[in-house]
Amino acid sequence: MDCSDGEVARSTKQFSKYGVEMDFMAHLISHPLMNFSFWLTYMQMDKYNSTIITILFLIFGCTELISRNIIDISIYQMKKEGSGRPLLPFYKYLFNQLSCYPNIALFLSIFIILDIGHIIDSEYILYVLFSTHLGSTANLYIKTLVKYYKSK
């Protein structure tokens, strides 16, 4: 549902301040819960090193909240300045979509199901998702800092 609410609002051209605030609150609540449920699933599989999995998901949760806040601040700033979102090349757009929540949750769910069915080993996919998310968040953070310091 999280992936479709914005699409429906854009296609029907019906936006509200309430809808934006509810979407933000839903992210603050559902994303940490998704992260917790993935962690709990890996713990219950009892297949991987629990310490490494726990550290990964703790960092995952922290970086997701950091990136969410940076994105929200950037959107607020663009609205204040009256500028729109810059168009990204397709490969950057695709990377951004694959390395952020809730899209990570969509892909990881499929891989976990395949792992439970003994079809694949999802630990390595988790490492790739973690690395891309961490790299994307670090890149976003650095760009935001550079933009901030250049504006002063």
Automatic annotation (TrEMBL):
Record-given protein name: CDP-alcohol phosphatidyltransferase
Superkingdom, taxonomy of origin: Bacteria
Bilayer-crossing regions: 48-71, 100-118, 124-142
Taxonomic source organism: Segatella buccae ATCC 33574
UniProt keyword DNA-binding present: no
Keyword Repeat belongs to the record: no
UniProt-listed InterPro entries: CDP-OH_P_trans (IPR000462), CDP-OH_PTrfase_TM_dom (IPR043130)
GO BP terms: phospholipid biosynthetic process
GO CC terms, sorted: membrane
UniProt lineage: Bacteria, Pseudomonadati, Bacteroidota, Bacteroidia, Bacteroidales
Single Gene Ontology MF annotation: phosphotransferase activity, for other substituted phosphate groups
Keywords: Membrane, Transmembrane, Transmembrane helix
